[in-house]
Amino acid sequence: MTQRLIIGATSLVGQRLRDIVPQAAFTTRKPKQANDLFLDLMHPQAFEGDGFAHVIVTSPLWLITESVLEVLWAQGMKRLVAFSSTSRFSKTYSPQPEERYVVELLSEAEARIEAFCATHDVDWTVLRPTLIYDEGRDQNISRIATTIDRLGVFPVCGPASGLRQPVHARDLAKAAVDVLSTEATADRAYNLSGGETLSYRDMVARIFASKGKPAHILSLPEGAWRLGFGVLGVLRPGSALKGNVQMALRMNTDLVFDHSAATRDFGYGPGIFKPEFGE
């Protein structure tokens, strides 16, 4: 029996789990390695597994429907570790309906997992990371690095004083594995922040430093950002960034979460923010 199944082989955490538990089975819609299994989360009934007891979900949590859970349970699932996000809390009152919708999806998914596991004798743990990064792969820190390469400068909103706690995907992968071997984590949820708290501006400066470049950070007032996003909405109505000026305004909002419970229960100890992009 395959003891561990990782759902989401191509996610940031899923890719790091390949390094930590290469003997596990990984699901993807496009299998590439010998231990990859095909799984379409929209049509989970077609899944053909060999049976397993432990499941780690790194795919978007809202894709784990009741049907998916039923299929996993039928395969022998007794322990489930699933990744959510602290966005469930930080974007609850966002002016952007799209962001509030994501909050709703995450909340419903967490409740669905808890309810299902309670009635099917499955121990569950939900992990909620803060700002995930993995050099060259993520859409947050790596996007800042790309902007620095292209422009040689990075624009921020005002002082960009909002506090951040970036956490590396490899620290999260290790956390998921540690949770599986710790009974105290059963039927609990944990916030997983990074090992260092720093301002958004200092975070950007650290990325400049990782590339061996002086920190050229351009502070623009809130009004300039509102105007810029307004123009973007007119010129590029189909853009994913359309109207979402909140991304810029949040540079001055603290997004800080305590991970002491995770440290106490399973020894969670993430590293400081030290990206390694190279020059």
Q: How far is it from the N-terminal to the C-terminal residue, by CA? A: 46 Å
Structural class: alpha/beta
Strand order in the largest sheet: 3-2-1-4-5-6-11
User: Roughly what fraction of the amino acids lie in strands?
Assistant: 15-25%
Please tally the β strands and state the result.
Answer: 13
How many helical elements? 10
Order of helices and strands: EHEEEHEHHEEHEEEHEEHEHHH
Spans of at least 5 consecutive residues with low confidence: none
Radius of gyration: 20 Å
CATH architecture of the domain at 1-129: 3-Layer(aba) Sandwich
Fill in the CATH topology of the domain at 1-129.
Rossmann fold
What integer is the average pLDDT? 92
List the helices and strands and how they pair.
Layout: E1 4-7, H1 12-20, E2 25-28, E3 36-38, E4 54-57, H2 66-74, E5 79-83, H3 87-90, H4 97-119, E6 123-129, E7 132-133, H5 141-151, E8 154-157, E9 163-164, E10 167-168, H6 169-180, E11 188-192, E12 198-199, H7 200-210, E13 217-220, H8 222-235, H9 246-249, H10 260-266
Parallel strand pairs: 1-2, 1-4, 2-3, 4-5, 5-6, 6-11, 7-10, 8-13
Antiparallel strand pairs: 9-12
Helix pairs in contact: 1-6
Describe this structure in words.
With 279 residues, the protein is an alpha/beta fold. The protein has a domain of 129 residues: NAD(P)-binding Rossmann-like Domain (Rossmann fold). The chain has ten helices and 13 strands. The strands form four sheets. Strands 3-2-1-4-5-6-11 form a seven-stranded parallel beta sheet, sandwiched between helices. It has a two-stranded parallel ribbon with strand order 7-10. α1 crosses α6. The protein is globular and about 55 Å long. The termini are far apart. The model has no long low-confidence stretch (mean pLDDT 92).
